Fold:
Amino acid sequence: MKNLENKVAIVTGGNSGIGFATAAELSAKGAKVIVTGRNKESLAQAEAELQVTGIQADQTDLKSIDSLVEKVSSQFGKVDIVFLNAGTAAFAPLDSASEEHFDSIMNVNVKGVYFTVQKLLPILNDGASIILNTSVNAHLGMPNSSVYAASKAAVLSLNKVFAVELASRKIRVNAVSPGPVETPLYGKLGLAKEEVEGFGAVLGEKILLKRFAQANEIAKTVSFLASDDASFITGAEIVVDGGLTVNAVV
Structure:
């Protein structure tokens, strides 16, 4: 069912992983989709495969966000759906984490998200839907994830405050918090294939459904929050983790 017919949607970081799957899902539901990313080649590939519009943008650079807003406004006018998906993950223990490690994560995951939302506000239609991609790491005490977890917890706080501030415009703001997902991200963490597989096997045992999520399963949750089916949901977080965070300790 094409319940997003004629809606204009932006998916940041839509050139791979969850963003790519979500762009495909929103497009299948009838939306006109714009995907952003820093890599020109992967953006071109996403454009060709998904029949969407790709715009190169870096959400750590406010001038780049301004340029994105200008291009979207000139090509599409107003926007109905924004999925703030672009983010980064890196891990380091407290006793050796560097300032660069801290800043690189916070600049992308918090500052970038904050100002992307802010700068898109003038071209958002009243009644629009904003979805923030967070993480179950905001709730878990996973070793070496302190900065990453803090960045996602910060975005969850933004989710609630944005929902309050934008309610007068009937703009709904919600968060989706995935658990482990089979995406290229794990390869980008500098882990060997054997390490990723070993990590996945151990973690998989802690997930009630005994597997990682597929990117399209997260995409379907985003599509639901973007649609009128979620018309009375705002300021909420939907956890999509296969039961990881509710698994019994013993």
Q: What stands out?
A: Residues 99-120 form the longest helix (22 residues). The mean pLDDT is 93. Helices lie at 17-28, 40-50, 62-76, 99-120, 146-165, 185-188, 193-206, 215-226. The beta strands are 8-11, 32-37, 53-56, 79-84, 124-133, 172-178, 181-182, 213-214, 237-240.
